[in-house]
Amino acid sequence: MSSSSSVLGRLRLSFHRHETKLACLLFVLGIAIAAAAPRFFSSVNLALLARSMGVLLIVSVGMLNVILAGGIDVSAGAILAVVSVVLVRLGNHGLPASVVLPLGLLAGAGLGAVNAALIAELQIPPIVATLGTAGLFRGLLLEWTQGEWESSIPPWLNSIGSPRWGGLDASVLAAALVMMAAAWILHCTQIGRALFRFGDSPLAAARTGISARQPIYFAYVSLGLLTAIGAVFYAAQLGAVQGNAANGYELTVIAAVVLGGADILGGRGSLLGTFLGVLLLSSLQQALVLLHVAAFWQNIATGAIVLLGVILSSAPLLHRKLLLQQSPSA
Amino acid sequence: MTSPSSAPVSLEQFGNPAPKFINRMMKLRLSENLQPGVVTLLVLFFCIYAGYRSGDFWSALNWQLLAQPLSEAGLVSLGMMFVIACGGIDLSAGATVGVAAVTAGIAAHHNFPVRAIEAAALAAGILCGAFNGLLIGVLRLSSILVTLGSMILFSGIALALSNGSSFAGFPGGLLWWNDAALFGIPVEFLFFLAIAAVVAVLLRYTLWGHYVIAIGSNRVAARYSGYPVALTLFGVYTLEGLLCGMTGILLVARLASARADMGQGLMLMAIAAVVLGGAPIAGGSASVIATLVGVAAFYIVQDGLLLLDVPPFVQRALTSVLLLVAIAAGNLLRGSRKDLR
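Predict the joint structure of the above. Result:
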């Protein structure tokens, strides 16, 4: 019975997929939460969970692009802060939404392009380049705001963040649209496939005629753009912004993507995994809040979950990759 | 008579790899020597300008005040240098400093003697480092992922240990680290120089240092050569933990208090300093002098900008620009655009 054995084989294969392990982990966590805090599964709380996931998911999709291309971006939190302050400040000056929103998105894409240029043109390693730009963006932003809070946001921004549709808000819709667009781009377009190829091996990609610049620009500009989209909802949900907003946010984003099974060396990762990673981190945090656990225990639990995810995902994979890979003598 | 035609098998037949190889070696040498030089030159120009604009810049007090935070960041950077040299990265360094500082605070709270407080802080640092080393060296997990997780974990542990509050009331013996000076040089800085010398010996004259560089250059080759990769990596991260523990003690002594978030910012500073010194982030190269130049450059520029009345947020932006410019300049001078692909 060849057909049944191939089905069995496919089942076994899919069991070894990281997403399956992650789903199991999520399932176990779900049972634990159901036992400890049954309120978690009330419709009100689930809507709240969806709202809290929106921004993280949107930015994580951008970070997935960057990590797929073999890069990393630790300036995403700074970009998020810059764009949200730009949006709120311009909005408070009385400019209409039709002017402010495009400007904000343009700012995000522009800052992403700065990162891409440093990495692609000046050949600065991604972590160093984005470390530098993170300090640069954040420093200039703080100088601009002088550390003051923008404690009121324009009414149109407020209406974006207000809940409707049974507790959901526009960020959930936007996250769904972003996921669909990303699925199409990553799997059905040339640049999406190039991203995977380039991340897996820049040399092999160059040999098959993929430009060395294009995937880098695409990855970082798309992260900048998606971070800007996230910033709209971030500011709208929070109702107040300041220069130090989203400090360290990039690390949560990277943790979510990595928890979702993306290979930090590039070339491997999936949208489904990223979604599960975001879901896992967000529901863990939400559950701990419901259980009235002090904030530092949330840190400990998050760190432990990330480490668990890393151990689950990369042990066999990394071993194989290390043996295959001739490390570049840069 | 230099014609090689008499030889039965000429290297030319196999595309003679030797000249290319030597060429590469020369480039590597050049790059190793160049970046700290560029940075030193930039900083010297800056010093002359700062001294011209501000009378306080060359005062002894300024340099004494400058030397203390420099030594703390320097210790973390020396550890980070090893981590980066073996092809890894340690994002949890700042959190480890926090754990060590809080441990010292708890020990002082229970009226431990000075040496016991120091030992407790060092042990906490070593434990954190060994935890990373175990996961990265023995379980072969990716360093950036492990330390990302352990950074969140350690900062949570530090907060839980301190209950989110800060400790004060340290014995005078511990504060000695801050108060004492020899010929006007803070003892903290002398301690840092001594550690730097020890680390330099470890790096250049021991088998372990050789292993670290070999693993960073090519991990697979190191494994096939029978080098103890797991043990060496374990040692590297444990050493980083130990140095973070020392930094925790010095920070506690200088500020006479201990908080969980004390090491914040030190991690990024350490990575930036090592890279500013010209070490490739991919590993395989390390120099104590270059790392010292990197750390010193950051602190001297920051201090100078402060004296020049540059707003604090702009200082932060300018030091980041310094990092980017120095790396870009080093890359361009090296002409390594092709090498990286």
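Chain A touches chain B through 61 residues (CB under 8 Å).
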